[in-house]
Structures are given as C-alpha cells and as structure tokens.
Design a protein that fits this description.
There is one protein chain. By secondary structure, the chain is an alpha+beta fold. It starts with a helix and ends with a helix.
Length: 263
Amino acid sequence: MTWKDAIIYVLQNNRLNDSYRPMHYRDITDLIIDQKLRDSYGKTPADTVNAQLTTNKNLFESLGEGIYRLTEKGESFADFGKQAQKNGTVNKEENTPLSEIKISKTLIKTYGMFWMRDGVNWNHNPKLLGVQSTGATAVDLSEMRGIYMLYDGREVIYVGQAVDQPILKRLVQHTKNRLATRWNRFSWFGIDGVCASGKIEKIDNLINTDIYSLANALEGILIEGLEPRQNRRQGDDWGFEYYQEIDKEIAKSKFISEIHKLI
C-alpha cells in the first residue's frame, strides 16, 4: 500500500458516527506502523506522512498544529484505500524531497525532549540515536546543530547553543567539565533537517523566516523545555520530534543487570 493509500485508510477508519475525525500526523503514522499497512517505513515515517498530507491538499485538509482530516474528495477515495488494504497492494513511492516537506519559515526542524543521559554511551563512540515512531529505523542525529537544555531531574540547570559544532559535541564536553555531575537528562532543538535517508541536511542557505516564525520558535523552546503548567500546547510551526533510542551496548548491559537481579 502506498503512503497516501495508508493515510486514507487510517483516516476513513477513524469515524465518529458518520463523520471522519481529524488526527495528528504522528498518530496517523503510529497507526500505519501498528497495523502494518506497509512493508517498510524508512527512517523518517512521520516526515513522509506529513509530506503526503501537505502535498495532497485536495485529499487532506489541515486544521493547524499538525492535525488533518479527509476532504470531500478524500472521502471519495476511502473505498479505494480500503480495497488496497484488503488486496495487500503495495506500490513503490519516491521519497518526497526534504525541501517540499519542510515549511521554509520553520526554524526548529527537529527536536527531542527529556532524553536520558545514561542512554548514551559517552565513553565509546557516543551517538544521538532517535526514532520518529515505534518500529521506525533509528536515525543518527549526532551531527545535528541547534539549542540544548540540561536538566537535574526536571529542573533546567543549563542552556546552550551549538551552531559551529554539533549538539553532541557540546554534550560530550559537559560530561567532563564543571557540569559533569549536575545533569541526568537533556532536551535538544535542531535547526537542521533530516532527509528521508536519515542523513542530516544543513539548512544554512534555506532559511527564510519572519518575526512571527522567530517568536514561535522562541515560544516553543521555552514551553517545551520549561513545561509551564498553564501552557497546553507547544509553539506553532514546529518540526518533527524524535524519541530516544537507547545505545545497544547500554541496553544490553541493563538487560544483563536485571537478569542478575532475578537470579
């Protein structure tokens, strides 16, 4: 099944009485993966779903903040999507270019919230590994640039930027300097994009912003990083969130440790 057919299938099965309910693109992505509507999902399935939603405006209507619903024309395609699922039809689609996926004025292209410090192997070839959805292939975000926050529990103790060097390199430095014993979690906000292949794409020559997008980016970083109790949403026009993928060696060590506890 193509990505477009899979999205239609998910949306047309998300009903409330006789109406199709709107959904966030990430929830659509999760259901496509959970229901195994495709044979493969790649490294950036949420990007791909978002690209299909934004480039097929005759089928999908944006309600803002990443939420979409079927248009009247999209509803007419619902039976086709259902039939494709029944037949197990799989069509190959080319990955949409990153330049078409991104909103050019979006300053925060990617981000990760409250990642665990002990989920990274800082002593041996450290990497920042993230996934967009459960079941997706991990992406190496080690070359990502942007802004980061260090936490002691839930308290922000340090905010830094990494533009001339990757965020990872700055984090490595903080495992050795005066902050080494002060933090156990971190959040990061990336200014670079991620191609469908998982490669980091620097956007230095693609930035086209305005005062409103700048304000949205600053607001979003503060809301996500500080989590004020009265704020119920993130900043507008944000990119894609990545969830932490624990380093395999660390995950293996934790598993062995838990086994020993049970023996």
